[in-house]
């Protein structure tokens, strides 16, 4: 007995993995279809449908599939093992209660109940794929086919029938069940008894007669899945109307989003459903939104990669083929940045963070989708894509093809074996996704992800039954991903102290589990959330009011540089009787992050309070430098939890497993807080304890400003400084007429300025620069420069940019040490410093000019100036301190 496309099980016997594998005629590099399609077809020709079904099948089981290749054999064996488990679990009871014994359909009301139906069809699909691959001995194959046939018969006579009644989650009936059951039928198409396929499709038409055209059902990822299901069922029964409906249904979502001008936080989804969900989809800044108000490239975004390559493969060259060229823009702007060491950060995975397989599952979805695109890529995109794939496969363990679609495992094997394909170097840079209130900063060995919320994005999706403790996940949290790639997996969100998320300042009031409900999540009532990118570095900030019952309000900024990032907070307040705290780190102990903690040079083995801490180091993670000494709370604890505790809709056995993890938590207590409460610290990913201690003694990061109105940090050796202005104001050499984010880089003969409007409410921003600018080298569109008496004014058109950045490169004459001497003299006069102190300060400048360690001389000068400022603060002293900081880059 053979599978429907002629692969003999006797020739392709995966069971022992030692038998010879059949090598079919077509070259794998010709793509999932196995052979090029000859050209447009007559849609009414039955041969066109048969050819499309063949290409669809080849998408999963391509001709030429070499199961002797270990990288293909590994996922094949996974699939065989899974299918055998399913076969052993078939419900044999009389009367039958379900397809599988552990998923009975006795209860028919809840989300869990409809999930049991969709899980059952997914299992049948896996069994059918194994059968189609010819992967079993004859007797086992016959038993597998019989079980599939009987399972389909049972479903089409009961829950999945033309008289079937919905229960539980609409998603199961409209998307999950049809997509998996259609593909189960595809794999055993020619071996099914007459009428089975028609019965499956008739039930599909019964439950979903049309593709929705409004609301969340018709938006972005959901609509792609609907269209996939329609095209699939149409091909199974030669129904051109369904195929065309699927093709045409894609048109609104294979395009840039066209949102209502109001942010979702100001739209009532119960009365303006269409306007609310119009925000779903892709944006030119790389953002992807689903459910109106959540960053979701890590779940619903995968629907595009999971469906469109298969859709185009089965319709290639026909009049049914949709136009999908825009997908390549999304690959590079929306997908690639978020794939780090074969994982996708939780902050863009919505409520999926409480799923059993964690970020690896999403990373596998990304890679499966990207690999599926290789065959249809043009030469330029294919070269870039293969380079990316080869780089990411290196982080997937052994074998790197585990959990992959068999066809993709074969392509991955070819890519890995091809010496002409060079792995893409680690992606570095700073991305500001203004539409979805996210900032991503990438270096070669680590990334940092800032999650915020505003009127545009809600704080955290909970749905009806999920993410029950997502209270603070987007409250300016900064999650650091390192070579410790399992850090956020294995039940992290079920076991972590959910009040203490890294980077987050909380009112420590007790919270209740989220009760559930759709589209009623909390929005921070501010437009100020966003940032500015200067390519390889950047800055971001948020004006944040906590979700009630929290009463915390504060303004928080983050500055991302080459060697680390800096977090500032100012104006932190809470109501009387409350206290506030900021979590610096909350790290799960793993084989990489060992939990060994050192604070100010001393090992810390237990929980406790440390007064006036300067630095901390966590082995296997990195260093933490207090840019102003701060009391530190250390918590070392073992925590336990189950995924069912935070997602009460889960039904899989792993959701009920009690997981235990050790955590090391570093917290800055603020007490009852006040307008002056705040913090300033730097995170140095991967740094050693010695490096952290040295950085504490002579920090490279200088806090230029930290007030509720403006915050700024300079990375002194690089000459780079980030500024965030919550209100109009002046800091250092930058003055702005409105709220803005500015990134400034001082070079030898160039001054580069990057500007954005994080509020997305301004039409223009005017930036005055106290600098000797002589003219423009390059100006982005919408940027104008005027120079008067050596002062430069930039007028930046930011209307409609959704927080994106504009830049200007200016020719200038940078300040010198002579300018600093004059500034010090003015500062000395302003505070009436004794002559000997003035001489000492000026002498420090001289040392910087010709000494052995000029940067140290400037830092020594700053210590003198800081002492003056404490005794008698003045603008002149602040200007001298700032200029000394700016000149470090010019003397090192």
From TrEMBL:
<dbReference type="InterPro" id="IPR012970">
    <property type="entry name" value="Lyase_8_alpha_N"/>
</dbReference>
<dbReference type="Pfam" id="PF02884">
    <property type="entry name" value="Lyase_8_C"/>
</dbReference>
<dbReference type="InterPro" id="IPR004103">
    <property type="entry name" value="Lyase_8_C"/>
</dbReference>
<dbReference type="InterPro" id="IPR038970">
    <property type="entry name" value="Lyase_8"/>
</dbReference>
<dbReference type="InterPro" id="IPR014718">
    <property type="entry name" value="GH-type_carb-bd"/>
</dbReference>
<feature type="domain" description="Polysaccharide lyase family 8 central">
    <location>
        <begin position="432"/>
        <end position="688"/>
    </location>
</feature>
<feature type="domain" description="Polysaccharide lyase 8 N-terminal alpha-helical">
    <location>
        <begin position="67"/>
        <end position="256"/>
    </location>
</feature>
<dbReference type="InterPro" id="IPR006311">
    <property type="entry name" value="TAT_signal"/>
</dbReference>
<keyword id="KW-0732">Signal</keyword>
<feature type="active site">
    <location>
        <position position="351"/>
    </location>
</feature>
<feature type="signal peptide">
    <location>
        <begin position="1"/>
        <end position="35"/>
    </location>
</feature>
<dbReference type="InterPro" id="IPR011013">
    <property type="entry name" value="Gal_mutarotase_sf_dom"/>
</dbReference>
<keyword id="KW-0456">Lyase</keyword>
<comment type="similarity">
    <text>Belongs to the polysaccharide lyase 8 family.</text>
</comment>
<dbReference type="GO" id="GO:0005576">
    <property type="term" value="C:extracellular region"/>
</dbReference>
<feature type="domain" description="Polysaccharide lyase family 8 C-terminal">
    <location>
        <begin position="702"/>
        <end position="765"/>
    </location>
</feature>
<feature type="domain" description="Polysaccharide lyase 8 N-terminal alpha-helical">
    <location>
        <begin position="279"/>
        <end position="391"/>
    </location>
</feature>
<dbReference type="GO" id="GO:0016837">
    <property type="term" value="F:carbon-oxygen lyase activity, acting on polysaccharides"/>
</dbReference>
<feature type="active site">
    <location>
        <position position="300"/>
    </location>
</feature>
<dbReference type="GO" id="GO:0030246">
    <property type="term" value="F:carbohydrate binding"/>
</dbReference>
<dbReference type="InterPro" id="IPR008929">
    <property type="entry name" value="Chondroitin_lyas"/>
</dbReference>
<dbReference type="GO" id="GO:0005975">
    <property type="term" value="P:carbohydrate metabolic process"/>
</dbReference>
<feature type="active site">
    <location>
        <position position="291"/>
    </location>
</feature>
<dbReference type="Pfam" id="PF08124">
    <property type="entry name" value="Lyase_8_N"/>
</dbReference>
<dbReference type="InterPro" id="IPR011071">
    <property type="entry name" value="Lyase_8-like_C"/>
</dbReference>
<dbReference type="InterPro" id="IPR003159">
    <property type="entry name" value="Lyase_8_central_dom"/>
</dbReference>
<dbReference type="Pfam" id="PF02278">
    <property type="entry name" value="Lyase_8"/>
</dbReference>
<protein>
    <submittedName>
        <fullName>Polysaccharide lyase 8 alpha-helical</fullName>
    </submittedName>
</protein>
């Amino acid at each position: 007995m053979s599978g429907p496309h002629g692969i003999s099980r006797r020739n392709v016997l995966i069971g022992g993995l030692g038998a010879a594998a059949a090598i079919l005629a077509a070259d794998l590099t010709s793509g999932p279809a196995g052979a090029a399609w000859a050209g447009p077809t007559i849609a009414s020709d039955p041969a066109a449908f048969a050819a499309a079904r063949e290409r669809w099948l080849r998408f999963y089981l391509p001709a030429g599939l070499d199961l002797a290749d270990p990288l293909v054999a590994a996922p094949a064996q996974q699939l065989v093992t899974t299918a055998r488990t399913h076969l052993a679990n078939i419900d044999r009871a009389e009367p039958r209660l379900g397809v599988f014994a552990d998923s009975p359909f006795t209860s028919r009301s809840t989300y869990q109940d409809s999930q049991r139906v969709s899980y059952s069809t997914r299992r049948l699909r896996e069994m059918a794929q194994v059968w189609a691959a010819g992967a079993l001995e004859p007797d086992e194959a016959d038993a597998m086919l019989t079980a599939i046939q009987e399972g389909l018969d049972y479903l089409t006579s009961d829950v999945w029938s033309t008289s079937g009644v919905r229960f539980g989650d609409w998603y199961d009936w409209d998307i999950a069940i049809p997509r998996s059951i259609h593909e189960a039928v595809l794999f055993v198409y020619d071996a099914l008894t007459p009428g089975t396929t028609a019965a499956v499709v008739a039930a599909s038409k019964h439950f979903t007669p049309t593709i929705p055209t409004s609301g969340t059902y018709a938006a972005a990822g959901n609509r792609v899945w609907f269209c996939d299901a329609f095209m699939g069922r149409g091909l199974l029964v030669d129904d051109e109307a369904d195929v065309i409906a699927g093709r045409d249904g894609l048109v609104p979502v294979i395009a840039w989003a066209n949102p209502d001008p109001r942010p979702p936080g100001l739209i009532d989804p119960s009365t303006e459903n269409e306007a609310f969900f119009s925000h779903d989809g892709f944006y030119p800044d790389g953002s992807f939104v689903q459910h109106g108000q959540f960053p979701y490239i890590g779940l619903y975004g995968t629907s595009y990669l999971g469906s469109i390559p298969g859709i185009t493969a089965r319709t290639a060259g026909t009049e049914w083929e949709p136009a999908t060229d825009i997908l390549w823009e999304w690959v590079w702007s929306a997908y690639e940045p978020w794939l780090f060491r074969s994982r996708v950060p939780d902050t863009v995975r919505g409520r999926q963070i409480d799923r059993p397989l964690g970020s690896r599952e999403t990373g596998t979805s990304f890679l499966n989708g990207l690999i599926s695109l290789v065959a249809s890529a043009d030469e330029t995109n294919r070269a870039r894509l293969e380079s990316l794939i080869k780089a990411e496969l290196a982080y997937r363990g052994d074998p790197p093809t585990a959990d992959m679609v068999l066809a993709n495992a074969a392509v991955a094997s070819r890519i890995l074996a091809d010496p002409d394909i060079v792995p893409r170097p680690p992606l570095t840079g700073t991305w500001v996704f203004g539409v979805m209130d996210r900032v991503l900063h990438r270096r070669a060995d680590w990334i940092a992800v800032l999650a915020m919320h505003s009127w545009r994005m809600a704080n955290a999706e909970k749905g009806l039954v999920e993410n029950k403790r997502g209270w603070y996940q987007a409250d300016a949290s900064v999650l650091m991903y390192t070579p410790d790639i399992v850090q956020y997996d294995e039940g992290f969100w079920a076991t972590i102290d959910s009040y203490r998320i890294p980077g987050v300042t909380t009112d420590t009031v007790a919270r209740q589990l989220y009760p559930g409900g759709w589209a009623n999540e909390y929005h921070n009532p501010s437009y100020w959330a966003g940032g500015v990118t200067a390519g390889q570095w950047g800055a971001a900030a948020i004006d944040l009011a906590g979700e009630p019952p929290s009463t915390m309000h504060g303004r928080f900024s983050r500055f991302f540089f080459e060697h680390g990032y800096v977090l500032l907070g100012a104006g932190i307040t809470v109501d009387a009787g409350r206290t506030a705290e900021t979590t610096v780190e909350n790290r799960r102990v793993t084989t990489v992050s060992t939990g060994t903690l050192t604070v100010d040079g001393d090992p810390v083995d237990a929980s406790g309070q440390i007064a006036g801490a300067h630095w901390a180091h966590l082995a296997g993670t990195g260093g933490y430098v207090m840019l102003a000494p701060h009391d530190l709370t250390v918590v070392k604890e073992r925590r336990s939890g189950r995924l069912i505790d935070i997602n009460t809709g889960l039904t899989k056995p792993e959701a009920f497993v009690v997981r235990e993890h050790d955590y090391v938590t570093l917290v800055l207590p603020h007490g009852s807080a006040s307008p002056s409460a705040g913090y300033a610290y730097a995170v140095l990913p991967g740094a050693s304890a010695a490096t952290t201690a040295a950085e504490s003694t002579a920090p490279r990061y200088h806090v230029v400003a930290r007030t509720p109105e403006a915050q700024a940090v300079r990375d002194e050796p690089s000459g780079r400084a980030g500024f965030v202005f919550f209100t109009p104001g002046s800091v250092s050499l930058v003055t702005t007429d409105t709220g803005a984010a500015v990134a400034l880089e001082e070079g030898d003969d160039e001054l580069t300025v990057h500007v954005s409007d994080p509020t997305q409410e301004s039409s223009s921003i005017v930036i005055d620069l106290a600098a000797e600018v002589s003219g423009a080298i390059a100006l982005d569109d919408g940027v104008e420069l005027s120079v008067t008496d050596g002062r430069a004014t930039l007028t930046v058109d930011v209307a409609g940019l959704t927080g994106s950045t504009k830049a200007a490169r200016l020719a200038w004459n940078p300040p010198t040490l002579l300018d600093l001497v004059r500034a010090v003299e003015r500062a000395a006069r302003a505070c009436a410093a004794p002559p000997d102190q003035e001489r000492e300060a000026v002498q420090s400048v001289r040392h910087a000019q010709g000494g052995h360690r000029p940067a140290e001389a400037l830092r020594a000068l700053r210590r003198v100036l800081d002492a003056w400022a404490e005794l008698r603060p003045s603008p002149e002293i602040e200007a001298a301190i700032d200029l000394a900081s700016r000149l470090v880059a010019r003397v090192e």
